Amino acid sequence: MALIKCPECGKDISEYAVQCGYCFYPLKEKSVDTATPSPKTSRIRNGKPSRNGNGTGSITHVKGNLRKPFRVTVTVGWKYDNEKGRVKQIRKNIGYFETRADAQIALANYIQNPYSIDASKITFAEIFEKWSTEHFPNISQSNIHGYNAAYKLCTDIQHMVFADIRLSHLQGIVDDCGKNYPTLRKLKVLFNVMYGYAMKNDVCSKDYSEFVDINKYKDRNPNKNEHTTFSKEELKKLWNVVNHDEYMQIPLVLIYTGLRVGELWNLKTKDVHLADRYFEVTKSKTDAGVRTVPIAEKIAPFFEHWLSKHTEYVFTNRQGGQFKDRNFRDSYWQPTMDLLNFEHKPHDTRHTCISLLAENEVDDKIIRKIVGHAGKTVTETVYTHLEINLLIEAINKI
After folding, report:
1. CA-CA distance, 254 to 250, in Å (whole number)?
2. Is 241 helix (H, G, I), strand (E, B) or coil?
3. Are 248 and 242 spatial neighbours (Cβ–Cβ below 8 Å)?
4. pLDDT, tens digit, 9 for 90 and up, residues 275-305
5. Are residues 389 and 241 in the same domain?
């Protein structure tokens, strides 16, 4: 009897074998009287192992003469790929195994219990990984990146045993990171959820996160009165990710309408006339802000999407309710900026709209009409009944 190599795992097997005794790879058609196949072969279909379901990890056969050629990997997060302009998976190796059956068992064990928590050894990084594995599937991609951005600020404690972390460590991160108040709020939220998870699993008995002070940094924003416009490259990046999450549309809606953030929250479905490509701002912080705003062709599909929800307000939070300032900035705006590595405030969108209109030689009076600036001359004051088609024509230039 001669020995041959299994084409799947490379082990020496009999030339008469109908399947590999190590990985159960099928080699020949079994005769009718062959015994019922082992349950371990149930994943073999059409001569190849079938794929695992989404979110259940994967098993791959690594080429080469390896003693343990079957690699088990799982997805533990997501990140934005600047080169490809899309969000991609962050994968983690669980281990290498001699047979596919062993790999399948290891993967099943990992899915059932990703970590066994040992309070005396588990680190801040491990708590974050375990918490995020459970929590991230239930939140938006923008929120995921918000938490990941906050986690990156914690390099000094990531490898510390969680039970050894004290208030001085947490406060030190806040004091030394140099970030502004909205980012610090997200950082403190991360501390809160880490301690909540750790206490639930008896890793620690005291929540030091509740004593972290960020209020003294409310004014830490040296550029708070300065506004920067979105660059052409940044606009392109926004368009590249717009289909990853419906909330990625919000910055573009603000840029192509010139709306103030509060005007966006207060926009009601009944005030939108999509077929005629305009909507009415009925509530604004200035008299000039109450106006008719054109809907650019580029963002008309966004309005169609949000209007299909049939909510009272057009743009709503994930619960279908009206946005609130802090919630919008912390849970929607800042995570999007962190994902794309942008340093922009919501009001920068309005300045970008004005800048783009000016670059395309749109008349100043029309610009003021679109964004709701008060007219400075008698001529502009009289110029109030501008035909909507002129406004649409202007906004479609950008």
Report:
1. 6
2. coil
3. yes
4. 999 999 987 666 667 889 999 999 999 999 9
5. yes
DSSP class of residue 274 equals G
Domain span at 157: 124-217
Find the helix or strand (DSSP H, E) in which 390 lies.
Answer: helix 388-395
Q: What is the pLDDT of residue 117?
A: 53
Distance in angstroms (rounded) separating the CA atoms of residues 150 and 379? 51
- Provide the CATH number for the domain around residue 285: 1.10.443.10
Work out how many domains the chain is built from and give that number. Answer: 3
Where a domain ends, among 62, 88, 112?
112
| Domain co-membership, 286 together with 381 | yes
Distance (Å) of CA 79 to CA 58, 300, 314 = 19, 29, 29
**Are residues 270 and 209 located together in one domain of the fold?**
no
Domain boundary among 54, 83, 112: 112
Look up residue 78 and give its two tokens.
Answer: 């997501």
Neighbours of 361 (CB within 10 A): 8
Q: Supply 334's token pair.
A: 């800042």
> Which residues neighbour 72 within 8 Å (Cβ) at sequence distance 6 or greater?
57, 58, 59, 93, 94, 95, 96, 97, 103, 106, 107, 110
Instruction: Tell me whether residue 308 is in a domain.
Output: yes
Residue 362 burial (C-beta neighbours within 10 Å; 0-12, 13-18, 19+): buried
- Sheet strands (E) in the chain: 3-5, 12-14, 44-45, 48-49, 58-61, 70-81, 86-97, 272-273, 278-281, 291-294
Indicate the residue type of 111.
I
* Same domain flag for 42 and 152: no
Is the pTM for the entire model greater than 0.70?
Answer: no
Residue 103, both tokens:
């790999």
> CB neighbours of 316 closer than 8 A, spacing ≥ 6?
306, 309, 322, 323
Give a yes or no: residue 250 inside a domain.
yes
Q: What is the pLDDT of residue 275?
A: 94
Please write the tens of the pLDDT for every residue from 142-158.
788 889 999 999 988 99
Q: For residue 13, what is the enclosing H or E element?
A: strand 12-14
Residues 244 and 355 in one domain: yes
| pLDDT tens-place string over residues 15-68 | 666 555 555 555 654 333 333 334 344 355 555 555 665 556 889 998 888 888
The backbone region for 322, taken as left when phi is positive above 0, alpha when psi lies in -120 to 50, beta otherwise, is beta
323 and 203 in a single domain? The answer is no
